[in-house]
């Protein structure tokens, strides 16, 4: 095992070392081009903890052959981390409706915070396919955990990197990459969800600073975030982005309770009551709706990959269950109706994988359009939700329990199909693109 990694490590220019004790063997890859060495790879556990998560990847069309060795290395290392750190605890945290904060450092270590942000700002310096694969593997564990990583990377680090000043980049990005600082993204308001351009949150120029008033709703990570990237209108009516820090007077983040979906993710409101915002906290390099939409493009791209992870987990569990569960004297996988479900699942997963991979290639070349990203997000999340529902049927009564991940994935995906643009809004985006006619209003 070690030898394989050694050859690969030399090829992609990383250092490697190995430690071991009776129950574990760890192999670390140290990327020399990172500002601070980043441990990315692997811990091979030989104990029973890992045996509880029996997930095996789904690759019916040899799509791994389209990936580079580095992609596979990153994918496998995150898969291994999810088996070790997420799978054993996630059901319990979801049942308790609590985000497992102790995994934040691990998420940072596997490169889940800012994978494609340049290394000089603490990011992973990876390509878009690596980013997608990281999201896929984390969501294979849980959509709520993936949401935390998506928000941190695409909705907080991306806008600071893309629209921020050099001072803002240096001040926030390294801490965000390490998980020392956690962020959230405030766009949605109580009366403006699908139509954020109508937002009421506003800033007024008060000479040495701005005064921010308004509120945001449904904000992932809000209850524990140290900073919030917030979008509000200035006096000219232009949407401006800014960084709001916990502790600023008049800024509160009440938690949203009673969710049946994304229960292992913390959601809350952002309330701004005459908050004094220093002028240096405003993003200098963007104005208008294109600011938040640019962030959403990056996050939606990650979701298109993430949803494949949830679908793969449901399929993997359903396939195994169908071979083990015996009714009428034979495994239920031997009935045509079960085979139809499984065959359609693996077909849809394969189509989604190819769509995501192609989108990743286009994104690496800066050629992925917002409309293509919408199509992939819509298709892949819907695909995952349909698979979760079919997998639930295959598990019979057991499918509604926390013994299997199915019901948790299914409930999570009800949020994923709504946030970052609803299923129907993405359909309208495609409709407008192909007809040239706006059907939104
Ligand atoms: C768990 C969770 C976490 C979230 N995290 C964040 C976050 O971190 N940051 C953030 O800013 N937001 C976040 N959101 C908000 C999310 O993006 C919004 O819920 C979403 O954009 C939809 O807005 P809405 O809920 O107000 O629904 P609405 O916009 O009120 O839509 C209701 C229904 O009407 C339909 N509809 C609306 N307009 C049209 C139209 N023109 N034509 C046809 N149908 C239409 C929609 O498709 C939908 O079915 C989160 C939401 C959830 C549930």
State the domain count: 3
CATH homology-level superfamily of the largest domain: Butyryl-CoA Dehydrogenase, subunit A, domain 3
Query: Bound compounds, please?
Result: flavin-adenine dinucleotide
* Total beta strand runs: 12
Residues in helix, %: 40-55%
| Oligomeric organization of the protein chains | single chain
CATH architectural designation of the largest domain: Up-down Bundle
By CATH, the topology of the largest domain is Butyryl-CoA Dehydrogenase, subunit A, domain 3
> Biggest β-sheet: count, sense, barrel?
4 strands, antiparallel
CATH first level of the largest domain: which class?
Mainly Alpha
Question: In summary, what is this structure?
Answer:
With 441 residues, this protein is an alpha+beta fold. 46% of the residues lie in helices and 16% in strands.
Topology summary:
Layout: H1 2-11, E1 15-20, E2 24-30, E3 42-45, H2 69-96, H3 104-109, H4 128-141, H5 143-163, H6 166-178, E4 183-186, E5 202-205, E6 209-220, E7 227-233, E8 239-245, E9 251-252, E10 267-278, H7 290-324, E11 326-327, E12 330-331, H8 336-364, H9 370-394, H10 406-416, H11 423-435
Parallel strand pairs: 4-7
Antiparallel strand pairs: 1-2, 2-3, 5-6, 6-10, 7-8, 9-10, 11-12
Helix pairs in contact: 2-4, 4-5, 4-7, 5-6, 5-7, 7-8, 7-9, 7-10, 8-9, 9-10, 9-11
The structure holds flavin-adenine dinucleotide.
